[in-house]
Design a protein that fits this description.
The protein has helices spanning 7-27, 43-59, 74-85, 105-111, 123-131, 139-150, 170-179, 194-199, 244-247, 261-280, and strands at 3-4, 33-39, 62-68, 92-95, 159-163, 183-187, 203-206, 223-227, 231-232, 238-239, 251-254. The protein is an alpha/beta fold. The protein folds into 2 domains: 30-113, Leucine Dehydrogenase, chain A, domain 1 (Rossmann fold); 139-261, NAD(P)-binding Rossmann-like Domain (Rossmann fold), CATH 3.40.50. Helix 7 links the parallel strand 5 and strand 6. It is globular, with a radius of gyration of 19 Å. The termini are far apart. Bound molecules: NADP nicotinamide-adenine-dinucleotide phosphate. NADP nicotinamide-adenine-dinucleotide phosphate binds at residues 140, 163-166, 168-170, 187-191, 194, 207-210, 228-231, 241, 261-262, 265. The site of NADP nicotinamide-adenine-dinucleotide phosphate has 26 residues, from helix 10.
């Protein structure tokens, strides 16, 4: 019998912990602030930004939204980032990706002060993750780790397979599992015999972006399956990278979509913003 790892419940716990810490900070005169920058009118980005503002309100973090028109120039965007870097009342800066095509995402991320980079996408923070000396963890992989921890799932010595090697999810995910002494394999679109690799997994993390990609014949009996995917099925309904209906029975633990990794990503952003406020006020 499998157990569902409830991302909503775990994220509520994380957010409550953040809220209590924020409350204490506010009592001591520090008001954590997050600036969220959105360029253009991508509807998915708009939903994500609204959710982030909602989360901030819930935990007591002040949020400022900068909604810029699609035709914003690179210079204008970089100027805004610079202004936010220099403001003491803004502890975290998040530029919602993807940016319109004419803008250089890499340059924009690199312009964010690393101590305000609450997404942990800046090269300096990515490098710190590699050497295990990190302050901010990228929100999605950090959320996955928190979910595994919530069920006391042992990682040490386990075969961990991550499908996907993006900078945002796959690579840092693999690194975090490695830091917990997992034996980690990263798979991607050129992996040969993906099924055989997946069948070796005690912990399987899917971050592929293909609806219901992971099927029952790719999952070892008793494995822990984490579904990072946020996809749409043939009816336009939100689903994950794992075919939950056929995979769940083979697992010991599985995360659902929706209600799994998604809420955790949001909660970890709040945790990173709190951390940023503490660092910038020399509390850590
Ligand atoms: P991405 O940048 O498109 O990366 C997808 C990865 O999957 C790539 O490394 C790709 O390999 C690999 N892949 C594609 N087809 C494959 C195949 N047939 N076999 C094996 N590997 C294959 O996507 P991402 O940004 O990492 O996101 C992945 C999923 O997570 C998406 O559904 C996204 O919406 C979701 N997501 C969710 C959250 C959340 O909060 N829940 C956050 C971020 C992302 P190559 O490198 O060889 O192309």
């Amino acid at each position: 019998m499998y157990k569902i790892i409830d991302g909503k419940a775990v994220s509520a716990k994380v957010k409550e912990e953040v809220r209590l810490e924020v409350e204490k900070l506010i009592e001591s005169g520090i008001k954590p602030g997050l600036a969220v920058v959105i360029v253009g009118d991508d509807s998915a980005s708009r939903v994500y930004v609204n959710n982030k503002k909602k989360d901030c309100a819930e935990v007591g973090i002040i949020s400022e939204e900068y909604a810029l028109p699609a035709e914003t120039t690179q210079e204008e965007l970089l100027n805004l980032v610079e202004t936010l870097n220099n403001r003491n009342d803004i502890n975290g800066i998040l530029v919602q990706l993807p940016l319109p095509k004419h803008l250089d995402e890499k340059a924009v991320i690199e312009a964010i002060s690393p101590i305000k980079d609450v997404d942990a996408f800046h090269a300096s923070n990515v490098g710190k993750i590699m050497i295990g000396d990190y302050v901010f963890l990228p929100c999605t992989p950090a959320g996955v780790m928190e979910m595994l921890k919530s069920e006391n799932i042992e990682i040490c010595g386990k075969n961990c397979v991550v499908i996907g090697r993006s900078n945002i999810v796959g690579k840092p995910m693999a690194m975090l599992l490695l830091h917990q002494n997992g034996t980690v394999t990263i798979c991607h679109s050129r992996t040969k015999d993906l099924k055989a690799v997946c069948l070796s997994a005690d912990i399987l993390v899917a971050a592929v972006g293909i609806p219901k990609f992971v099927k029952a014949d790719m999952v070892k009996e008793g494995a822990v399956v984490v579904d990072v995917g946020m996809d749409r099925d043939e009816n336009g309904k939100l689903c994950g990278d794992v075919d939950f209906a056929e995979v769940a029975d083979k697992t010991s633990f599985i995360t659902p979509v929706p209600g799994g990794v998604g809420p955790m990503t949001r909660a970890m952003l709040m945790k990173n913003t709190l951390m940023a406020a503490k660092i910038q006020n020399n509390i850590i």
